[in-house]
Structures are given as structure tokens and as C-alpha cells.
Amino acid sequence: MTTETLPLESAKIVSDCPRLRVLVVGKSGAGKSSLISFAFGVKMESISDRARGVSDINKAIESPQNPRFVLHDSMGFEPGETVNLNSIDNFLKVHSGEAVSLEEQVHIIWLCIAVPASGSRVFETGDEQLLTLASELRGK
After folding, report:
1. Residue 20 forms beta bridges with which residues?
2. Which residues pair with 72 in a beta bridge?
3. Is the dihedral of CA 132, 138, 139, 140 positive or negative?
4. Taking the domains of the chain in order of start, what are their residue ranges?
5. Counting beta carbons within 10 angstroms of the beta carbon of residue 30, is it exposed (0 to 12), middle (13 to 18) or buried (19 or more)?
6. Is 139's pLDDT higher than 80?
7. SS3 9
8. Rounded to 5°, angle at Cα 40 from 138 and 121
9. For residues 40-57, b (16+ Cβ closer than 10 Å) or e, as one string?
10. Residues 75-112: pLDDT tens digits?
11. Where is the G domain (predicted)?
12. pTM of the entire structure?
């Protein structure tokens, strides 16, 4: 690919896949909904700095600022809880693989990490499990 052919390649990619599907994941309270609201201009009704937000990973969120993105907000990971991690696992399996159209695949996983308190772990168990899952799916 050269600088002369780059516009042609870009146009082909956009024609094959006009929108990128972004899955936003991370621990509860890491700022996933705030990030979506700020970065993509989407009003998120579940933003709270006091209570755990509620979101539906299967509900596509479209950005009025940039129609080339389809966003999915996941519920946050909680220590010792597996339901939300399982829903992310299922969502990724449905939206990955050769049998899934390019437009329906997850193209980007945006992992939000809360800044840890002194002496705390940077990655929680849920973060580590998600990275392992993403690595396994990438290999398929």
C-alpha cells in the first residue's frame, strides 16, 4: 500500500463495512457510560457517580456526531460476579468469527480501567478474563 493507493483502500474498507462496532467494557464505576457520552455525544441516562448503572449490551447505541460508529455499553464487572462477564462472552461469540458478516462483527473492544487506589491492582480478575477471551477470539 502506498500513499497513492491509500484513498482507494480506505474507500473499499468503508464500502465493505460502513460502521465500526465498538464494545465498551470494564469494572463498575470505571466511567464507561461517561466515556460514551463525552466521546460520542450520546446522552446516557444511566450515568451516576453513586449507583451502579444499568445497560443492555445487546442494544446498539448510535452516535449522532459520527454515524460510522455503533456502540455497545456493557454492565460493569463486580468482584466475584460472573453474570456480566458471561454476557460479554456471549455477545463477543455472537459478533465474531467468519460466519458473521463484517458489519455485525465487533471491531473494537474499549476496556475502561479505573485508576486504582494506592496498593490496589490495576487489572481486576474480570479485566484479565476479558483480555484472555479477546485473545482467544482473535485467534479464530
Report:
1. 69
2. 23
3. positive
4. 16-138
5. buried
6. no
7. helix
8. 55
9. bebebeeeeeeeebebeb
10. 887 777 788 888 999 999 999 888 988 889 999 899 88
11. 21-114
12. 0.76
Superfamily designation of domain 16-138: P-loop containing nucleotide triphosphate hydrolases (3.40.50.300)
Amino acid at 77: F
Q: Which three cell numbers stand for residue 108?
A: 473494537
26 beta partners: 112
Contacts of 120 (CB under 8 A, 6+ apart): none
pLDDT level of residue 44 (50, 70, 90 thresholds): low
C-alpha cell at 97: 468469527
Q: What is the pLDDT of residue 55?
A: 78
pLDDT, tens only, 47-58: 444 445 577 899
Chain centre to alpha carbon of residue 119: 27
